[in-house]
Amino acid sequence: MIKLVNLRFYGGINEIGGNKILLEDNGTKIFLDFGMSFSRRELFFEEFLMPRSANGIGDFLTMNLIPDLPGIYRRDLLEKLGRKPEEPTVQGVVLSHAHADHSNYVSFLHKDIPIYCGETCKYILEAVDEQSQRNIENEVLNFKKRPIYKDEYKNPPIERKFNTFRTCDKIRIDSLEIEPIHTDHSVPGAYGFIIHTTEGAVIYTGDLRMHGAHAHMTDDFINAAKETKPIAMITEGTRINLKKTNESEQKVYTESKKEILKNKKLSIVDFNFKDVDRFTTFYKIAKDLNKKLVISFKHACFLERYHKDPKIKSPSSRDEQILILKPKRLTGTYIDEDYTDRYIKKRLNYPNIIIAEDIAKNPSSYMVVLNFYYFNMLVDLKPNKSAYIHSLSEPFNEEMEISYERMHNWLRFFDIKFVQSHCSGHISGPDLYELIETVKPKKVYPIHTEHPDMFKNLSMRTHIVKEGELYKL
User: Fold this and answer.
1) Where in the chain do CATH 3.40.50.10710 domains reside?
2) 233 forms bridges with which residues in the sheet?
3) 115 and 92 in contact (C-beta within 8 Å)?
4) So what's the pLDDT on residue 20?
5) Which of 48, 99, 253, 472 is the 20 to 30 Å CA partner of 462?
6) For 249-420, CATH number?
7) How much is the average pLDDT of 258-287?
8) Which of 301, 300, 257 lies closest to 281 in space, CA to CA?
9) Environment class of residue 362 by beta-carbon count within 10 Å: exposed (0-12), middle (13-18) or buried (19+)?
10) Are 416 and 228 within 8 A, CB to CB?
11) 3-class SS of residue 224
């Protein structure tokens, strides 16, 4: 019997994210992630120039945002293009984690292609779905058949087939056995994979790090991967060009607490809602300093899912240390009728709701989690001479730099002190070299990186991948 194991890459090539990796073993085909490429998308589209949902996947195919492959896309989206529907040619998609650059373009896939992901990853996708307005790019869990005619809009969406797992579960997809191992990343429920093929083990790192609060989980993955003597490793390389730093979650805690302690007025912090480690850091600071941590209704969606997972040990959104900030809508009077979003309406009866005007009366008692896109609430919070902890990565493209400068305009206007305090979700160059040399794969395929040439320093054979090219293992 001829053994054939092949790889093709349709995203994550000379870019950060957008991973779409097709692995085939004797006729069994799976995708490892199927994410949105932010860098490709931003070449053509922005906030007020979007891909047209009315054109289905036509804009996405034409602008090379997704690969034109047979047997992977939804029947309704193909018919919209005048194409005949196709039966699935892929037996599954395995998601490493819930970030959009790894998962969002599952939205376009055929309903009968099963999706495999961690239990916590599914919780996060549910939280995103709850507080997002439906559009063609965020129909990961379920989708509405398009075009959506007026009389069909109330029809229930079509649910996808999800299979969830935990660390060390065994996933069987036809001839493949896949072993998920937890890793440490800036979102919980992140996994690397050991894929047992007919030629040997193939390792996929997903996104990971060695300097986070749960580095031991990445150690578990490295040790398990090493034992398999892999024939190949597909690895992220976001920060392959950066030296090791002293960043850590503990450092974020120490630096941020020091700044907040010095400030006698309102404390404002900003971090990614999905990052439960960062939430835990600021929750602990709030408790230590006897301040109420004020979150948004959107943040509550994530917190409630995390609270369902006993391994995460996250507090409920109704915890005594937490308040939920009610935004101004419509009449500006905070009456219940002003709120039409379901995720807000279902929580309006929570006992821990607060409004900006009440915070402004006693600002030193609060720490407010405020995303830049809600900075207009500063007008009501009146935060003059406050402190703002920016616990996110610094801008890395032109569009982000414009928003970053606009953010600083707000801070200067209100005389707010800016403090950068962050811990990256991605492994440093030296740590990544050490990881690969420890696992010792025969071949390395770097993706999710703008610097693939830096992998040529490795002792093992490195393939600088090209889009759509066939790599035989």
Assistant:
1) 249-420
2) 203, 444
3) yes
4) 98
5) 99
6) 3.40.50.10710
7) 95
8) 257
9) exposed
10) no
11) helix
User: What is the pTM for the complete model shown?
Assistant: 0.95
pLDDT exceeds cutoff 70 at 1: no
417: three-class secondary structure by DSSP: strand
DSSP state letters, 145-200: -SS--GGGTTSPPEEP-EEEE-TT--EEETTEEEEEEE---SSSS-EEEEEEETTE
d(CA 142, CA 219): 35
Residue in this structure with the two tokens 């047992």, named with its chain if needed: 196
Residue 3 is predicted with a pLDDT of 58
**Edge to edge, what strands does the sheet with 353-354 contain?**
353-354, 322-325, 292-295, 366-369, 267-270, 387-390, 417-420
CB atoms within 10 A of CB 155: 11
- Token reading at 364: 């030193």
Tokens of 371: 């995303």
* CATH 3.60.15.10 placement within the chain: 5-242+426-472
Average pLDDT, the chain: 95
**Side-chain-side CA neighbours of residue 110 (13 Å):** 21
Q: How many whole angstroms separate alpha carbon 248 and alpha carbon 281?
A: 11
What does the chain come to in residues? 473
The stretch 36-47 carries a mean pLDDT of: 93
CA 221, CA 182: separation in Å to the nearest integer?
Answer: 7
**The pLDDT of residue 80 is above 50:** yes
CATH code for the structural domain at 5-242+426-472: 3.60.15.10
Give the C-alpha separation, 277 to 283, whole Å.
10
| Span 90-119, pLDDT tens digits | 999 999 999 999 999 999 999 999 999 999
Q: In whole angstroms, give the CA distance from residue 278 to residue 71.
A: 40
Stretch 309-337: mean pLDDT, rounded? 95
CA distance 366 to 362: 8
User: Which stretch of DSSP H or E encloses residue 445?
Assistant: strand 443-447
State the DSSP code for 46.
Answer: B
